[in-house]
Sequence to fold (433 residues):
Amino acid sequence: MSAVTASHPYVEALLKGYEMPRSGASWLNERRAHALERANALTVPTTRDEEWRFTDISQLIKTSFQPITNSSPPSMSEIAPFLAPEAVLRLVFVDGVFAPVLSSTKGPDSVVVTPLALAFGTHANAIEPHLARHAAFENDLFTALNTAHVRDGAFIYIAKDRKCPAPVQLLHVSIQKEAAVYPRCLVVAEAGAECTVIEDYVTLTDGPYFNDAVTEIVAGEGASVTHVRLQREAAGAFHIANCAVALAKNARYASHAISLGARLSRLNLNVLQQGEGVEVKLDGLALISGRQLSDSHTLMDHAHPNGKCQQLHKCVVGGGAHAVFNGKILVRPGAQLTDSAQQTRTLLLSDKARVDAKPQLEIFADDVKCAHGAAIGQIVAEQLFYLQSRGLSTESARNLLTYAFAAEVVDRIPVPSLVERLEKVVLAQTQAA
Fold:
């Protein structure tokens, strides 16, 4: 089935030569077909759209991308710098294609870590209720494009009351220039289950290329999911991602989202409270410079009582870079005793650096505790003077203060090897800024 009736020429170009994957599962084919229909009907967002008014994606629209060609996967030594030694279970995708020789999928019987393409037949009962059910594609072009291409994604399943003994790493490696890739991930943690997932996007090329990623996370009653998301794409790459999280009663979700690379990147993180008593922690860090644009949109949807959420998002912006943060807390009618707070803080390292911050509260219940705040500034002169008075040079003092500002978020990641590597990256980038 080929798509030639798109309402926007760029969408038509992306779908040129598209052939719908055939899984044999009628429900999946129907969802792909619906997503393709929506992709053809939707237009590319512009700054005239409220949700995109700070984020100009015209550079993406001006870049043409080619279908993935067959190529040899990298060697284990080439991807070794990106591997987390704590992650015993690992799925590696090279330009969106599963690389079994680089992966490790054998774990306890209660934990399934496998490509979606292999799971459709054996785990359909766990996949069918959730895949393309939480990340809505009806009005989102990039989610629709990804859903139409669903084929070789990742599937993680943790059985009821079981704990995954070590983090699971999903490593997405880009090696082809001018390629458009559609990574997909579904995580299902049954009631009482626990897991930590590392979703990591890295590169072995200098771009440009385009990753259009979608992740869906489902936590059952009393389940706990820790989600570490690292975006360290090539400097010329484009990265647009949507992550939808659904939390049942008393579930816990912790997100650690780090954005370092890409010419243009955007993450939409939507968390839905589907039962009482959920606990959510959302940490984010964008560390950018040059002409980079990093956009983070979050939605914490409190649809039931007794929900708790603590969010901290930090941006370090150097050169002529542009950071965007739009964080929304929604408290629906009846969601009493909600306790939700949001903070965004930005450090500008140059006169040309720019940030647009838009924290939002929408409250439709009367017995709640909610707060938000935004702070934007530069290096504090008094702090700089104090360090200089202790013998540090001006440059060293600035680097140390910048590093300390960013490291607060990095240090809370519960994977020691990633913390160590990211601290080095943060320190290196603050020195280069």
